Structure formats: C-alpha cells, structure tokens
Amino acid sequence: MKRWLKILGLAGAVLFLVLTVVNASWLAPEPKGAAKIIAHRGIYQQYDKTGLGRDDCTATRIEQPVHDYLENTTRSIARTAKLGATLVEVDIAPTSDGEMVVFHDWTVDCRTEASGDTRDFTLAELKALDAGYGYTADGGETFPFRGQGVGAIPSLEEAMQASGRAQLLYNFKSKNPAEADLLAAKMKTADRDTGPRGDAFYGAQAPVDRIRTHFPDAWAFSLEEGEQCSRDYLLLGWSGYVPDSCRNGTAFVPLDYQWAFWGWPNRMIARMESVGAHIVVLGPQGEGRPRGLDLPEQLGEIPASFNGYIMGDDSLAVIPALIQRFDDRTPEEFERLQAGLERRRARRGD
C-alpha cells in the first residue's frame, strides 16, 4: 500500500512539474506590442446596470453626469479616437429608406421624443429627433441633455468620418444577416479598411457569419464564439493544446478570472497568436457590472506584458490612464470625472 502511495505521489509531483513548465508564463517569449483599448459605445453617460433587462431604458438610469457626451454620436466617437482608442464600438441599425445609422436601441422611445421601431424611420426622420431628450439622473425631475441632441443620430458615413485615426467595431444588434450585406455595401462604397488592422465586427451569429463572406480577413466574432473559446481553453489549455474554437477566433478573459487561464499572460498570448486568435480582457463579472473596465485603477490588475485588447466602458477615465500622451482633458473635466468615479466606487463598494 505504501509503495503505491509513493508511486502516486511521485506521479503527481511529475505531473505538477510538467503542467507548471508547460504553462509557465515566464518561460514564454515576451509579447510584442502594447495593450489596445476598445471603447464600448465611445464616451457615454454611465448608468446603473443593477437588475437591468435587455429592453430596459438605460437613459433613465444614468449616473449624475460629469460630461455632456452621448453614446453613438460623432462627437463621442471623435473624442474617443482623439484620446487614443484603437477601436470604437458602435451599434448599427438600417433605416426604412436603405440607409444605416449608429444607434443602440430597437426603438426610439427611450432616448428621443418619438416612439416606434428604429428601423421603421427614414434617415431624415431620425436626424430630426433629439437624441438627448430622455436622459435623466433623478427619476425624471430634470433632463440635462434635452434639446442638445437634435440631429445627433449619425449616419454610418458620418460615424466613419468621425472615427479619425481609430477603427470602428460594428455591433450587429439584429440577427438578420441582410444587415451585414447593407453594412458591407456601405463600407465598400466608403473604401473602409477591413484588413487585420482595420474595422471589425461582432454580434449575433448570423450577421457575423455573413460579414465574413464579404471580408474574410477582417476580425469578426460573435459573443457565443468568444465564450466558447474561453470555456474550451479553460478546459484544455493546461495541455498546451489550443482548442479549435479559438483558431482565428476570440477569447474573453474577465478581469477577475485572469488567474484561471492557463499560462496567463505570456504563454496564453503566444498560443493564441500562433492560431490567429485575439484576446479581449473584459471587466469584472457580477450583477450590475459593465462589460468593460470603468475605473482607471482596474488597468493595474492587467499584466504589463499584455498586448491584446481591453474593453473600456468609461473611456474618459480609462483611456488616459493607459495612454497618457493623448490626454487632453481640462482641469475642470478631470475634477468632475474624479467626483463621479468616487461616487461610483462608494455605490459599489470598490
């Protein structure tokens, strides 16, 4: 019995040593390049995400405003690009007259003074609306942006022009692959770059699959694909094997689960790069948490050698904390932002 225990103990020790060496980050080559920011919705009014449903109106849940930027507007996109974002995430929707706009919601009821399905409006009709009409931080007592968003819903072409040195990450809100066809046609007319360093795409599986037929070299992924790659790597990555679901794919690494990913960061980066996969660090998981990082100190939890993508939710706070050379925030803007961050930390207990 003792002999078998010794054999099992020795086998366990050898297995532990092998797994440690195979997944040792410090033995992997140093990654080249620096981390890159994906600015979720550009610069937008942060809102309380606790108990938020898929179709709930986020404009009525905003934090006390610290700036006057509205999501998915040219002004927001341009400022985000100027701060140094690599990709600015925008939500797209077709119009009833064959155009395409950048707008998040299925209906215009939440943010504007009108009502009805967004896709039932013409471009001119959407342009006539006040995109800041419905925003309130105090349950409807005041509406700080009412009257400031007339004409602010941009056409796709306007969003492209506003993106400057940044690229766009188009989010398909619909499952209709025809929307990918329309987007592709608009992009080809505008001569947008969709190569490895160009615009990218994500969203529902059907339009993602369709956009790949138009731009096979572009970065495109569905949320399901990213989650599948991450799950499979957590299950099999210990062996050094990169799952098929990650090949030319995307892996999501939540900020608070970095420790669980085999060989993090350098060994995992090398493995993913060897199969053409992208890594996106997301914000901490949990009820009421945003998709990306919304506090500057969260960047300190990401290893300095990480060279992939970081999803940023509060771009005005997070981007300058990573890329200081483009920080053009005024002292007044910075002071208001810091006050808002303190309120957020206190509310969440961070």
From TrEMBL:
PROSITE patterns: GP_PDE
Domain of life of the source: Bacteria
Record-annotated GP-PDE domain positions: 35-322
Protein name listed in UniProt: Glycerophosphodiester phosphodiesterase family protein
Native organism: Qipengyuania profundimaris
